[in-house]
Amino acid sequence: MSQKINAIVFSKDNAAQLSIFLDSVNKNAPNVFDLNVIINSTNEKFFEAYSIILNDKKYSHVNFEVSTDNIKEQVLLRLKTKHDYSCFFLDDNIIYKEIKLDDIISQIESDDDVVCFSLRLGDNTTKCYTLGAENVLSGIEYCGDFMKWDWTLHYLDFGYPFSTEGHIYRRKDIYKLTRKSVFVNSEELEASLFEYTETFPRNKMVSYKESALVGAPAGRIQQSIEDEMEIKYKESEARVRREKMNEMFLEDKFINLESIDFSNIEGCHQKLDFGDIDVETSALDKVSIKKFGKRWDETTEEEKYEIDEIFDKFKEIVNQKEQEND
Prior knowledge:
By secondary structure, this protein is of the alpha/beta class. The protein has 9 helices and 13 strands.
């Protein structure tokens, strides 16, 4: 058996989805990865949920560590191993179908031009969630259960080799690029790695014909072309969803891997049914987010007073217009 793949998993305030990811690895990739999970919890409730995972015997093979102030140094230490291959995952990733270590390694080793094996791409991933567009595929080489393409000739998901979600690299390659990168979290790491796309010499990507991993960003938002205000709303909603999922996980009421429907995966990111975790943004929330960057119930009494004044002025304007129309 070939040496396992070194994997670094980033998780922040999301033990609920992390548990699903770890279960998906146990089920569909039991002998593929050496897992290192870097945990960041911002309050006691989130840490309590992570403690459940840390004390669960079915995850005893996983190396857990708390995020430090120098995340780059922490990541580089985990990449500086004797493994030949390394990858990153996020806690909302799910490996939804079986993958094999020899499949991945043989496909990378068969072609020096391959930069990575992508678990999240396949000819079924026609939709680009981030930009709300269709992935366009051309010049694809098919060989049995695998597909290969020149990523420099593609756009959107198929022209994006340096992802922190299930792209498997030669360890020396990703170590060198990570060492050059400037970042304090996984989002900045991915953005920094993207800067090397124009100069990186390997121009091929390979994957299974059907994707094996999907990202289900219920508790976070992704970079997008939306305006700043819309992103603030979505960030606030994502934060509340994380809190809801965490509460459900602590009460043992959160959905499990076997209950999730993977019958129609059409993007490397996709909304999946995690039960009642949706959040409504009220008028008070919208004004609070716009003015203070947080929801109404998170504001101080002084901030609430300012928001009330805004609503009072708005009501005066409406009343004046109604009187003028009368």
